[in-house]
C-alpha cells in the first residue's frame, strides 16, 4: 500500500487542523514584504502516469507539461541523482518562469541515512546549480523509520547543507509528531536554519498535517485519495492559504499527487483556477482546448 493510502477514504475526517500558533508568530516577521510567489504542479510528467493528459503526437512530455503548469515536484531525482548535462537539458525545455523542486536522492536520505554524505550532497547540488533561476526549493524526505533519536544527525546535515540552495524537510515517523517537545525542537531547528517544514496532506497520516510553518514558505504535498472529497479538501486549503497570506506568507509551493496519478492534472486545475480568483494571481493551468481531459 502506498504511503498514507487507506481503503475507505470516506471514513477519514479531512478537516484541516487549526493553524499552529507558532506559524502566526513566524509569519508576522514577513507581513510587510508583500512578495507573494506561487508554484503549483504535479509530481511527475511522464505519459505513463498522466494518461490522457498529453495530446496525441506530443513528442516531448516535459516541454508540453511546462506549457500547462509553472512547476514540477521532481521526484525523479530521488531514484538517481542527475548529471549536470541532464539538468541542463531539463532546464532548456522549459519557459523562463518555470521552476523545478527536486527531491534529494535516496542514496543520501535512505541508504546513507544522512551519514557521511558531504561528497554526495556536493555532487548533487553542483548538478542542480545548472537549473540556475529555475531551481525552486530542494527537499529532503526522510525514511518512515528515521526517528527523532537521530535528530542530531539531521541537525548536522542541515547545518552543512549549502546555504545557496533553499531546503525543505519532510519527516514521516510518527514519533516526530506524537511528542510535542520533540516536534517543537525539530521545528526550532528548521526555523533557525531557514528551512521550510513540509506539510503532507494524505488520508492515512493526519498527524502530518501539522500546520506549523518555520519560515516564509508553505511547502505542501497534497495526496488525493481518488475520492470526491479531494476537491473539498483543496477548497479547505485555499481558505487556509488565504489566511496565511494575510498573516505574512511569501511563498507557496503546492504539489498534487494521487494514488492514481491520472487525476492529478484535474485536481491541480481546479485548485489553480480558484487560487487565481481568490488571491488575484495569474498561475497557468491546462487549457480545455489543448488536451482531452478538460
CATH fold assignment: TIM Barrel
The CATH architecture classification is Alpha-Beta Barrel
- Identify the CATH class: Alpha Beta
Helix percent reads 25-40%
Query: Which structural class fits the helix and strand makeup?
Result: alpha/beta
| Global morphology | globular
Rounded to the nearest angstrom, the distance between the terminal CA atoms is 29 Å
Order of helical and strand elements:
HEHEHHEHHEHEHHEEEHEH
- Care to count the β-strands? 9
How would you name the oligomeric state of the polypeptide chains in this document?
Answer: single chain
Task: Estimate what percentage of residues fall within beta strands.
Answer: 5-15%
Number of domains: 1
Mean pLDDT: 94
Separate helix tally: 11
**Uncertain residue ranges:** 288-294
Major sheet characteristics? 4 strands, parallel
CATH homologous superfamily heading: Protein of unknown function UPF0759
Q: Roughly how many Å is the radius of gyration?
A: 18 Å
Strand order of the largest sheet: 1-9-8-7
Description:
With about 290 residues, this protein is of the alpha/beta class. The chain has eleven helices and nine strands. Helix 10 (about 230-245) runs parallel beside helix 11. The longest helix is centred in the C-terminal third of the chain and has 19 residues, at about 230-245. Residues about 290-294 have low confidence and may be disordered. InterPro entries: DUF72, UPF0759_sf. Pfam families: DUF72.
Summarize this entry quickly.
This protein has 294 residues and is an alpha/beta fold. The chain has a single domain (33-290), classed as Protein of unknown function UPF0759 (TIM Barrel), CATH 3.20.20. 37% of the residues lie in helices and 15% in strands.
